[in-house]
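Field reference: sequence -> structure
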Amino acid sequence: MIGVLYEHPEWFVPLFAELERRGLAYSRIAAERLGYDPAARSAAYDLVFNRMSPSAYLRGHTRAIFAAQHYLAYLAQLGVPMVNGPEAYRLELSKASQLNLLASLGLPAPKTRVSNDRDQLWAATVELDFPVIVKPNIGGSGALMQRFDTAEDLADARASGTLDALFGIDGTALVQEYHPPRDGSIVRVEALDGQFLYAIRIYNDTNQGFNLCPADICQTPSVADETLDFRPVGVPAKASRKIEPVDPPKWLKDAVLRICASGGLDLGGVEYVESERDGRVYFYDINALSNFVTDAPTIVGFDPFVRLVDFLERRLRDSAGLRHEAFVGAQHLARLAEAAQVG
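Structure field:
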């Protein structure tokens, strides 16, 4: 059986539909209602697919974020096969860790400083060029990010205390040089099982801030909006973004695959911007939880959920093969032990 660890009420309807269409046994593991016995030495799942998002706190599910981290670590200790397991989830949870990874791979990223103190954050800006963005280390869907065009704007936010709200749920924030995107667009590259899946150019032409998720369903309301009126899958946003397929240069595709391999991502979306400031490319976001583009067959020519479930089926078969080998090995050891006792 496949266990799907998730929290968002709508994002994974297409995934569940494809699993059901194929008759694959699966169980929904609601991360906001997690409970398990750490003394239990076996799990009910042959494969666990992690679909948790750090933006859960926007939907009143803050406790799900860290409980999911503990649960994935528990499953890893039991040896349960996972897709986007603990390593990928740790990367998803920390923008600072994402920047660490990019730096270790020698890949370009916007100049950034990380701190848990607003005065340290302010002091760090002398090494940066304005405009800058201040963002929480644990974010999701562009939440809480703010742009400051001048040092005076940031000083005002510091003096008023509004800067404090940008540190997020782990008390850590990043201040980062802002690179206006050329043509008002960014590129998101999706990878699956170590291979390029597709790439799309997303235009920020609907005045929706920093949330450039390509799926209509994840256009997140303001944090202050407590209604959280999620649209059903298939219902377009009122002001849909302009999205088009793109074929990035080989070096960019290869870079994305290196990021996924080094970060433990079986599935992931990596975003980069072509800067209007200096003309260079900068990687700025790594998404272990990939929300596929709305109406993918029309935009990229195929349904990524079909390929995703193809991958899950392969991993499930591999898991069954490993369990069989372990069982045969255990039987062999038991026979050897019995023969030794008889002898």
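Note: The chain has nine helices and 13 strands.
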